[in-house]
Write a structure and sequence with these properties.
Largest sheet: none
Distance between the termini: 29 Å
Strand content: under 5%
Helix content: over 70%
Number of helices: 11
Radius of gyration: 18 Å
Number of strands: 0
Structural class: mainly alpha
Length: 273
C-alpha cells in the first residue's frame, strides 16, 4: 500500500507515520471522505436566495464533487492493485451518509427543514477542520520528509480549495439558522463520529489487506493516542475556535495563497482539463 500511504502522508506529522497502524487510519480517510463530500453536495442543493451566497455555494459544490471523485479514483486503483475489496466498507459508509445523514423521507416539511439544518451544521463543522488541514498542508515544508511530489500536489490542491471556500459552508449554515449553540453542538458530534469511522476503516483494512496483520481495536486505539501526543494535538485542538462567539472561518488561512497554488497546481489543471 505504498501508493496509498504516499497519498495521505502529507496531512500528518512525520512521527505519525512511524506506526503502520496510524498509516492505515490515514488511508481509511480516503474511504470515508468521498461519501461525506457527496452528502454535503446533496445538502447544498438549493433554498438559498442570496445571489452572492448561491454563486459561492455552486462553486463549493463543484469543488467537492471533484475532490470526491479524485479520492475514489486514486484509492480504487490502489486497492484493486493490492487485492483489497473495499466494497463491503463502502456499502456501510454509503448507508450512513445517504440514510442516517441523507435527505430523509418525512411528509412533515418542518421536520425536513430541521434535518437539513442539522446536515448543514455537520458540513460546516467538517469544513472548519479541513480548512486548518489545508492551511497546514500549504505551509508545511513537507518535501524534506520525502513525500511523493505528485501525491503532495494532489493534497495541496485539495487543501488550497478547502482554504479558498472555507467560509461557504459556515455562511450557508448561518443563512439557514445555524447559530452559536447549534454550531457548537454540531462540532461536538461531527468529529467523534468522523474519528470513529476512520478507526473502523483502519480495522477493515487490517482485516482485508493480505500484507497487514489483524491487530484489533486495543492496539489501534493505543497507537492513535500516542500519535495525538506526538504531533496531531494541534490539529485536534483547532476545532476549539468554533466555540468562540462571533467566530468566522476567514480567520484561518489565506485566500490569495490558496488561489496562487491552485493556479499552478498540475493536479488542478488535470481536474479542470
Amino acid at each position: 500500500m505504498r501508493a496509498a500511504l504516499a497519498l495521505v502522508a502529507p496531512l500528518f506529522t512525520p512521527s505519525f507515520f512511524t506506526s503502520s497502524v496510524n498509516r492505515l487510519v490515514a488511508c481509511s480517510s480516503n474511504m470515508v471522505i468521498p461519501e461525506g463530500e457527496r452528502m454535503m453536495i446533496q445538502a447544498f442543493d438549493g433554498g438559498v436566495h442570496d445571489e452572492k451566497l448561491r454563486e459561492d455555494m455552486l462553486g463549493f459544490v463543484g469543488q467537492e464533487l471533484l475532490h470526491a471523485d479524485a479520492h475514489d479514483e486514486v484509492m480504487n486503483e490502489v486497492f484493486t492493485r493490492h487485492g483489497i475489496d473495499s466494497e463491503p466498507f463502502n456499502r456501510q459508509i454509503q448507508y450512513f451518509f445517504r440514510n442516517t445523514l441523507g435527505r430523509g423521507d418525512s411528509d412533515d416539511s418542518g421536520a425536513n427543514r430541521q434535518r437539513l439544518i442539522e446536515r448543514l451544521g455537520f458540513s460546516a463543522s467538517a469544513e472548519h477542520r479541513f480548512t486548518f488541514m489545508g492551511d497546514w498542508a500549504l505551509n508545511a515544508d513537507l518535501e524534506k520528509f520525502g513525500a511523493d511530489p505528485q501525491m503532495l500536489d494532489l493534497f495541496r490542491w485539495h487543501g488550497s480549495e478547502e482554504v479558498e471556500h472555507r467560509a461557504v459552508a459556515h455562511e450557508v449554515a448561518a443563512y439557514f439558522g445555524v447559530e452559536y449553540v447549534r454550531r457548537s453542538v454540531s462540532m461536538l458530534v461531527t468529529w467523534p463520529v468522523f474519528l470513529a469511522w476512520l478507526t473502523r476503516g483502519a480495522i477493515y483494512l487490517c482485516r482485508n489487506d493480505p500484507n497487514c496483520p489483524d491487530i484489533g481495536w486495543p492496539r489501534l486505539l493505543w497507537e492513535l493516542s500516542r500519535a495525538m501526543r506526538r504531533g496531531l494535538s494541534s490539529w485536534a485542538w483547532s476545532g476549539l475556535s468554533t466555540f468562540v462567539p462571533g467566530f468566522h472561518p476567514d480567520v484561518a488561512g489565506s485566500t490569495s495563497q490558496a488561489l496562487a497554488y491552485i493556479a499552478q497546481s498540475p493536479a488542478a489543471k488535470r481536474a479542470h482539463a
